[in-house]
Structures are given as structure tokens and as C-alpha cells.
Amino acid sequence: MTVLEADARAATEEIFDLRRRLAEAQQAHAEEVRRNQAFSRIAAAIGAHQSLSETVQAVIDGGVELIGAQFGAFFYNVIDRAGESYMLYGLAGAPDEAFANFPMPRKTAIFAPTFDGAGVVRSDDVLADPRYGKNTPNQGMPEGHLPVRSYLAAPVKTADGLVLGGLFFGHREPARFDSRAETVIMGLAAQAAVAIEWNRAGEAGDRELTERRRAEERLKFALDSGRLGSWELDVETRAYDASDICRSNYGRGPDQDFGFDDLVATIHASDRDRMLAAMDEAIRTGGEYDIEYRVVIPSGETRWVHARGRAAVRDEPLIGGGVRRMAGVSLDVTERKRAEERQRLLLNELNHRVKNTLVTVQSMAAQTLRAASDLPAFREAFEARLIALSQTHNLLTEQNWESASLREIVDAELEAFGGRERLDFDYARDLRLNPKATVAVGMAVHELATNAAKYGALSTPGGRVSIAWSTEPASPETSARLRLRWTESGGPPVPPPTRRGFGARLLEKGLAGELSGVVRLAYDQSGLVCAMTLPLAALEP
Amino acid sequence: MKTLAALKVLVVEDEALVSMLVEDMLGDLGCEVVGPAAEIEEALRLAGSAEIDAALLDVNLGGRPIFPVADALKARGVPFAFASGYGEAGLTEPHKGSAVLQKPFREADLRRVLEGLAAQVV
Predict the structure, then answer these.
(1) CB-CB neighbors (< 8 A) of A364 in chain B
(2) Measured between alpha carbons, how far is A526 from A460 in angstroms, rounded to an integer?
């Protein structure tokens, strides 16, 4: 071979070599580009804010693709009450069943660096790794495990060191994962950590948001159920925000303007200064605002509102001598106020009645004493009158102190004197009397019956009493009236009394005066006759 | 200034037993009873025109307040006292401070109140 030939061959070989190196470089470049494209595609998938399991799957699939692994797995930590536990996992390159029958990996010698977050474990042949097979019960991979020789594992941990889980890759042949693969997986693990942390934060945020919504719904339900309105006031700007129920407490619809000035204007003029003073006090001291006031709603109706509130943020320091915001509730208490007013009137009315009754009893005692010949006579007459008064009260109490019937009054007062047997009375008809007339007529009938029992028709076995009554409609001369006639018969002749006793005075003057009528007593030979003419207007309930 | 003897006292009271008691007490004190009136209309008539030195007014006359009668007496310069189970609490604002005879009352209480009224009679 000539020198020329040798040169030509060398040149040719050099060209071939250059071509081969060029092809190799191009292939390596293409591989690098492909890998980079894959990495960014995978990084995008991981960072796409999907669900946790989707993120995990993107990490494993990406890892398998990037380093040419046969199997990939991601065991991620879920802390249960017992402590550490790796409960969940994702797989690539093997069906889910490949691990389904194995217990979750424990912190064995080979796994510990991963789950403790110590660092990457890469082994060309895991079966030869000094850390492998050191733990009972399996002393290595359990029976039926995927055949792993090349092994690469990296912890997935957050920036502040919290281990979220571990990424594991395997290949059935040894020495498949180089240092480059290790770098790739470390990058992937960092990506995964960020994605998972983001995902968890998102879930926690969602949970918090849901929890807040629920709490708000519960609060709204509670407020609505109690017809409680809620409000908030910006103390500086006087911006006032009121719920629908709060607005309705002030007679405003949900769509009507209702600002702080409207609120103040709605409050009854007599209560306004008190309300403003209470609010200023609460703002200045950060104390409770608790007040009841009248409001005059746009329809003109006056209602009562109970408003309560305090500094919106309790721990917020007082600024410039006052709080920044106030929040509170409002409740329409009109019904309660009306009930209280009714109660107060009722109590006053009761007091009035009791006091009047006491004076009545005082009067009866004084009158009875004037006429009584001795103390036993006083006691007998006084007790009888007291019981007669009590009977009329019983009848009125049965009817809610609204009225009593003439028939019942007659029955009650004559019961002690033989009752119906010696009485001619038309029980088929009846007339209702107001409380005042009930007491007056009841006491009158009692006095007549007592007198009859002592001196008149009821003092002898054959005597009788007739009570006849009728009503007369109004005429041009007189108003409508009741005519009632008490007639005794069959008793001893009754001479007119030498001096007018309590009974006669009560009937002729008292009853007539009280009921604006006329009462006449006639001492007839056959017995006493009492004729009453009383205007119905004074009797009717 | 007048003494109780022959003092003409208008009594407005709608319950017979109560007005009988008041009449008796006033009689014992030597006063002359005008009325008793059991109705507002009658009371107003007497308050406006009857010859009276003083008046004793039941606050509640069959459910109707007595105050128009009090106003008529005030206009005429006739001193009066309210008789009430409520005490002063039963009075409306313009009449707070008026003499009040709390029911039930003793004759001595009535005398004291009447002496106060008689002192105002010119």
C-alpha cells in the first residue's frame, strides 16, 4: 500500500469516524431534546392542579418514561392515628394487582432512607445491596413480587422537610439506572412534592371554605329561625349593612335602601337620643350595645326592636378612642312588648279590683256594725254578706270576669234560703250582666233574701218569693231598661221599718245610684215588694 | 281656710258600698256630701255648677278615667283629692302631685286629706 493509499484510507476512516460521531452527537441531541420535551410535558401534567391521584399517576408515568424503568410506584404517606402508615400508592408498568396482595412497605433498611427523607437510593443490583434482605419476615422481596434488580428510590418531601411519600423505580435487569436517571428522578420528586403540597393546600382551603359556608348556613338558619336580623356598621364611614330580616324589622324590603341615616331616622324620636348615646358608648369603650327602642316603620306603624351588638373583632385594639366596626343582631320584640303591656295593665286592673274589694268589705263591716245589736249578730250578718259578695266573684271568675247571668246570680244568692223550692222564677229566660251590675244585683238579692228570711215570707213555712223580670226597649222618653220585681207572699204582714237599715239603704240609694236607676220598696200587707227599674246600658256587658 | 265642719264635699264614686262608706265617714267628720255621683256626666255637671268646697274623686269610674272632672275642678279652683287603689301610679302626668287617698283608707286618713284640701279653700 502506497503512502497515498494509506493516506486515503486514513482520511476515509477519519471521515467515517466523523460521520459516526456526528450521527452519535445528533442522536444524543435528539435524545436530549426528546427527554427535555418529555420532562416539560410531564412537569406540566404534574403541575396541572389535578386531583391527588391524577398528580401521583402523572409523576410515576413520567418517571418510568424518563429513565426507562419497567416499573414505577409512588407510596404516599397518610398518617393514621397509630402513627406512620403508607396506605396509598400509584403504579406504572404493572397492574394494580401486582401489589394488591402485599402489605404496604415498611421502614426496612432498604426503604428507610426514602421514607425518612434521607436521600436517593440507587442500586445497580438491589439483590446485592448490603441493605437488602435484612428484615423479617420476608428477608427481601416477598414471594411473587415483581422481579426487580435495578432499583432507584427518592423521597418526595416538601421544602421544609416533611416527607410526603417515596418514588420507587425498578427494572428486571441490573445496572439500568445511571447518575443521570438519579438526577432526573430527584427533579421529578421535587416537582411532585410541590404539586402534592399545592393539592393538599387546595383541599385544605376547599375544606375550610366548605366549613365556613356550612357555619354561615348554620348561623343564617339559626338567625332566620329566631327571626333575628344581623347587621354590621363601619364606625368611621357609617356604612351600615343589614340582613333581609334586619331590614324587615325596620319595615324595609330586601331591595330598599337602608343605610345608617335611614336606621336613625326610623327610630322613634323619643328613643333616638338614647339609642345614639348607647351606640357611642359601645363604640368608645368597645363594650356591649344592648338596647330596646321603638321604631316608626314607613307604613306609620310603631314597633319595638331589640338591638344588640359589639365591636366586630373582639381582640381588635381600641383605635382613636373607639372600635372600628360593630356587628350585631336585631329582633322584633313588638309582641313581647305588647304582652308586657297587657300584663302590666292586668296587674294594675287586679290591684284596682283587690283594693276596691277591700274597701267594699270595709264598708260592709262598718255598715253591719252600725246596725248590729251585739257582736254575735254582727258576726252572723257580716259573714253572710262576705259570702254573698264572694258568690258574685265566683260567677264572674268563671266567665273571665266579663259577665254573669241573672239566673245564676239569683240561684247563688238564694241557695242559703231554701233555693228554688220556695221561689217562683222563670228559669227559661236569662240576661247577662256586666261585672259591676253582677256585684250590685247580687248584693241586692242577698239583702232581700236575708230580710225575707228574718222578717218576711221566708220566715214562715208557707211563704214564697216571686222574681219576675222583663226588658223594655228604648222609647222616645226612656232608654232600654230592665224591670225586676221581687214580691213576697204568704209571710207575716210587714210594717215599714222604723229606721232604714243597711239593706234598704243599699237597695234604694246604693243600687239605684250605682246603676242610675230607680228602686222602690213597698211594705205591703201581704209582704215586701221591691221594684227595680234599671237602664240596660248600665247592666249589659 | 275652712274647717271640716260644714265643708261641702263632692263625692264621685261608682260603687254603692264604697260611696256609702265615704258618705258615713264624711258625715262623722261633719262634712256635707254633694252627690255621690256614679257617672262622669253627673260628676261633670256637679263639678261645674254645684256649690262645693272640695271634691273626692274615684280615679276609675266604671272603666272611664276621672280626669276630665279633675280638669273642670281645677278650672274652677276647687281643691280635690283622688281616691285610688293604684296610689299615685294610677295618675296621668298632669295630675301627678295631686292629693291621693289610697284605698282602702281609715277615717283619720280621710280627715288628713280633707284638712289639706280645706286649707286651700279661700
Answers:
(1) 17
(2) 13
Beta bridge partners of B12: B37, B57
Alpha-carbon distance A264 to A240, whole Å? 11
Q: Which three cell numbers stand for residue A198?
A: 399545592
Rounded Cα distance, A526 and B100, in Å: 50
Region of poorest pLDDT, from A216-230, A406-420, B50-64: A216-230
Alpha helices of A142-178 — where are they, by DSSP H? none
User: What SS3 state is found at A530?
Assistant: strand
Q: Which helix (H) or strand (E) holds A163?
A: strand A163-171
Mention every residue, 6+ apart, whose C-beta is less than 8 A from residue A532. Answer: A444, A482, A483, A484, A485, A486, A511, A517, A518, A519
The pLDDT value given to residue A78: 63
Distance from CA of B112 to the nearest CA of A (A): 18
How many Å lie between the alpha carbon of B59 and the closest alpha carbon of chain A? 10
**A225-248 confidence digits (pLDDT tens):** 778 899 999 988 899 999 999 999
Q: Tell me the shortest Cα–Cα distance from B122 to chain A, in angstroms.
A: 32
Q: Do B85 and A510 lie within an 8 Å CB cutoff?
A: no
What's the rounded Cα separation, in Å, for the pair A157 and A315? 37
Q: Report yes or no: A236 and A327 within 8 Å, Cβ to Cβ.
A: no
> Contact, A145 vs A91, CB < 8 A?
no
Residue A3 host element (H or E) = helix A3-46
Q: Which domains does chain B have, with CATH numbers?
A: 8-120 (3.40.50.2300)
The C-alpha atoms of residue B34 and residue A31 are separated, in whole angstroms, by: 129
Sheet of B32-37: strands edge to edge?
A: B32-37, B8-12, B54-58, B80-84, B99-102
* Chain A partners within 8 Å of B86 (Cβ): 348, 351-352, 355
B17, B22, B39, B45: best to mutate for the A interface, most A CBs within 10 A: B17
Model-level pTM? 0.60
Task: Provide the greatest CA pair distance for chain A.
Answer: 188
From the list B38, B84, B85, the residue facing A513 with the nearest CB is B38
- Contact check, Cβ <8 Å, B24/A366: yes
Q: ipTM value of the model?
A: 0.90
Alpha carbons B1 and B115: distance in angstroms, whole number: 9
Give me the helix-helix angle, B40-49 and B67-76, nearest 10°.
Answer: 0
* Integer Cα distance of A386 and A374 in angstroms: 18
What is the per-residue DSSP string for A184-228?
HHHHHHHHHHHHHHHHHHHHHHHHHHHHHHHHHHHHHHHHHHTTE
Q: Is the peptide bond before B94 cis (omega within 30 degrees of 0)?
A: no
CA B102, CA B113: separation in Å to the nearest integer?
10
Alpha-carbon distance of A462 to A489, in angstroms, equals: 9
The contact set of B with A (CB < 8 A) is 14-21, 24, 36, 38-39, 60, 62, 84-86, 89-90, 103-105
Closest C-alpha to B14, from B44, B53, B58, B51? B58
How confident is the model over A344-368, as pLDDT tens digits? 888 887 888 888 899 999 999 998 9
